[in-house]
Write a structure and sequence with these properties.
mainly beta; twelve-stranded mixed β-sheet; 1 helix; globular; Lipoprotein
Length: about 170
């Protein structure tokens, strides 16, 4: 019995130490949505189990179909990265992000500073795969965005998404 107790006392700390090495480096959920903002990795995160930090909505209305994909991070200075695809056709295609009045990209910081694509700061979303039965969509994105009322801008690149969307009709 003493030998078993000694063995447990020696092995247990080793097991605990080795398991600590298996922890994720951060709590960012980068399996469904992620990107780099000015070269820094960014991903969605929420510490509230009731809040899904990634949202995708496909809205069909009399003027066509729009797809919105937005990701939030409650613990980062960059709170939201999103893009809106107007005239979404529901199949793999490349969409240009350019004007705020059509398809565009958007980044919001914690201090509510907003950056948006425009005529000079553009980008694109490549919808690579869409499953209309399972309502899943995946692809890549990148864009540069300008701060409203300023000349400051940022670059979003190496973006990817693999999300389930909700369907709405208006």
């Amino acid at each position: 019995m003493k030998n078993i107790l000694k063995l447990l006392c020696n092995i247990l700390p080793l097991i605990v130490i080795s398991l600590q090495g298996c922890q994720k480096e951060d709590d960012v959920d980068d399996s469904r949505f992620g990107c780099y903002i000015n070269g820094v990795k960014w991903g969605p995160y929420s510490n509230d189990f009731k809040f899904n930090p990634v949202r995708a909505d496909r809205v069909t209305w009399s003027g066509g179909t729009t797809l919105l994909i937005a990701a939030h991070n409650q613990e980062n200075k960059t709170e939201m990265v999103a893009f809106v695809l107007k005239d979404f056709v529901g199949e793999p295609k490349t969409y240009k992000l350019d004007l705020p009045s059509s398809s565009h990209g958007l980044v919001t910081l914690k201090d509510y500073t907003e950056y948006e694509t425009d005529l000079s700061n553009i980008g694109q979303v490549d919808v690579v795969k869409i499953d209309t039965v399972k309502k899943q969509i995946s692809g890549n994105f990148s864009f540069s965005a300008k701060m409203k009322n300023s000349n400051a801008f940022l670059k979003v690149n190496k973006g990817y998404f693999n999300v389930t969307y909700k369907v709405y009709y208006q």
